[in-house]
Write a structure and sequence with these properties.
With 241 residues, the chain is of the alpha/beta class. Helix 1 packs parallel to helix 2 and helix 7 runs antiparallel to helix 8. The longest helix is centred in the middle third of the chain and has 13 residues. It is globular. The structure holds zinc ion. The site of zinc ion has 7 residues, from loops.
Length: 241
């Protein structure tokens, strides 16, 4: 099966639209959304509508939970808190119900899927080999796919050692190794590359591929400013940080 992964869409409609053009060109067997559909960006309802129409499986991220009152806003910085409060006021009743129905961890297609980590599906950042190693120890998955860091990466268990590297774009062969992989962020990349990030995994070849897509950053920025959201949330999009 050829599976696609989108994560951390963050209400960025131009980024999602551009990624879905690339998604449609890949002839996937299924598309999985790892959560954080909303927060930071200016198009929460449009992004939920489009992502839920296209994705076969969707998870809830911490920002999704924050927007529906299921995550403590005190854990957010001021920009995230401001955008969560704005998003709460924007969501339609149907989209609130939809977010309420999502879980943050699921096993599907022979993979372990979580928004953040297997150990803590809502909040933990798998951003270094030590945290990855602790996650390999808590469950017996072969391959886990997580988002949340906004940085595409591959962590692998090699005997007793855990390797970890960023995968800004391109392929990694996961054959014969337990792995935790991250497709990066559609709507707010943070690895210094402003292009939207998503990934595929081919279960026949065990190849994980990170794909980058240019999108109309300016359109997303203007929508953020027009909505009265913090300006920082617009400027960071052009830097990919
Ligand atoms: Zn996120």
């Amino acid at each position: 099966m050829l599976l696609g992964f989108i994560s951390d869409l963050h209400a960025n409609l131009p980024a999602l639209e551009a990624v879905l053009v690339d998604v449609d060109a890949q002839q996937l067997d299924a598309l999985i959304c790892l959560g954080d559909l909303v927060g930071y960006g200016a198009s929460p309802n449009e992004v939920i509508d489009l992502a839920s129409e296209k994705a076969d499986v969707s998870l809830a991220g911490n920002h999704d939970l924050a927007a529906i009152g299921s995550f403590d806003l005190a854990l957010f910085n001021r920009h995230a808190r401001a955008s969560a409060e704005w998003t709460s006021g924007e969501l339609t009743p149907a989209n609130i119900s939809l977010l309420l129905s999502l879980h943050s961890h699921r096993d599907a297609f022979g993979l372990s899927l979580a928004h953040a980590s297997i150990r803590d599906p809502v909040s933990e950042y798998v951003s270094n080999p030590q945290v990855a190693g602790e996650n390999f120890a808590v469950a017996d998955f072969d391959i886990a796919v997580v988002g949340h860091t906004h940085v595409p990466a591959v962590f692998a268990l090699m005997g007793q050692f855990v390797t970890g590297e960023r995968l800004p774009a391109g392929r990694a062969d996961l054959t014969g190794q337990r792995s935790i992989v991250n497709p990066g962020s559609v709507g707010q990349p943070r690895d210094g590359d402003p292009r939207a990030s998503w990934a595929t995994f081919d279960s026949r070849t065990s190849i994980f591929e990170v794909r980058r897509v240019e999108y109309d950053v300016r359109r997303a920025q203007e929508a953020i400013i027009q909505a009265g959201l913090p300006k920082f949330l617009a400027t960071r999009l052009q830097e990919g940080t």
